[in-house]
């Protein structure tokens, strides 16, 4: 009788495990719902958006985690990084991101910018300092300055800030899943757990 009771208990725990996994991440604790949902850059895919700031040490530490995670995305999922301008001083780096993207150099300089600020302790806080850095990388500083101050960059920064407000952004790095859910390292407790929460939300979105 005891053996039969143990077998029943073990079987119950085995089948309960998926349920526990589903309940491991709690809305309002591990992530927040974005209400109303925000339109994504690709309605046909599940879009995961990291909002970051080059000057943020937490974003710098998160970068290798999210970079490795993004290497093996499932079909139907896309990842994008968006520079924050929610705080006025951060706009310098948001403009830098978009100007470099228009030059086709953003991917080339993404890590270098992080490292210059957080490893080499360079004070890249204004246009002159960043233009000098850009020139050191063999790029046209004059073109960079022109794009930095251009209307298209103005427009991208404004649109980005409007989305951040719609997300209810409170800090960086913050990750938005499909325009519907917001989570962060603060909510998750650590970056490994943050990626697990993201995967949980992505899987839920893929199931429809």
Q: Could you characterize what this model shows?
A:
- The protein starts with a helix and ends with a helix.
- It has one domain (27-207): Glutaredoxin (3-Layer(aba) Sandwich), CATH 3.40.30.10.
- A hairpin with a 3-residue loop joins strand 4 (174-177) and strand 5.
- It is globular.
- The protein contains nine helices and five strands; from the N terminus they run αββαβαααααββαα.
- Residues 2-21 have low confidence and may be disordered.
- 56% of the residues lie in helices and 12% in strands.
- The protein has 208 residues and is of the alpha+beta class.
Summary?
By secondary structure, the protein is α+β, with helices and mostly antiparallel strands. The protein has helices spanning 2-22, 57-70, 91-102, 106-118, 127-136, 141-148, 151-167, 185-188, 191-207; strands spanning 32-33, 46-52, 77-83, 174-177, 181-184. Helix 3 (91-102) packs antiparallel against helix 4, helix 3 (91-102) packs across helix 6 and helix 3 packs across helix 7.
Q: Report strand order across the widest sheet.
A: 1-5-4-2-3
Major sheet characteristics: 5 strands, mixed
Give the helix proportion (percent range): 55-70%
CATH superfamily: Glutaredoxin
End-to-end separation: 45 Å
How much is the average pLDDT?
Answer: 91
Oligomeric form? single chain
Tell me what the CATH architecture is. 3-Layer(aba) Sandwich
List its salient traits.
Glutaredoxin; five-stranded mixed beta sheet; 9 helices; disordered N terminus; single chain; 12% strand; alpha+beta; 208 residues
């Amino acid at each position: 009788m005891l053996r039969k009771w143990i077998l029943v208990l073990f079987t119950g725990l085995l089948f309960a495990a998926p349920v526990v996994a589903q309940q491991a991440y709690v809305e309002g604790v591990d992530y927040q719902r974005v209400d109303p949902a925000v339109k994504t850059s690709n309605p046909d895919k599940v879009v995961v958006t990291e909002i970051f700031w080059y000057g943020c040490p937490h974003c710098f530490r998160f970068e290798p985690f999210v970079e490795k995670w993004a290497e093996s995305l499932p079909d139907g999922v896309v990842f994008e990084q968006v520079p924050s301008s929610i705080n006025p001083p951060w706009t310098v780096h948001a403009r830098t991101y978009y100007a470099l993207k228009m030059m086709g150099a953003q991917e080339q300089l993404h890590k270098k910018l992080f490292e210059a600020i957080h490893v080499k302790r360079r004070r890249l806080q204004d246009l002159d300092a960043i233009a000098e850095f850009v020139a050191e990388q063999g790029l046209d500083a004059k073109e960079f300055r022109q794009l930095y101050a251009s209307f298209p960059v103005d427009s991208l920064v404004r649109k980005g800030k409007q989305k951040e407000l719609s997300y209810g952004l409170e800090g960086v790095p913050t990750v938005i899943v499909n325009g519907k859910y917001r989570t962060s390292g603060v909510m998750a407790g650590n970056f490994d757990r943050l990626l697990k929460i993201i995967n949980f939300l992505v899987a839920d979105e893929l199931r429809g």
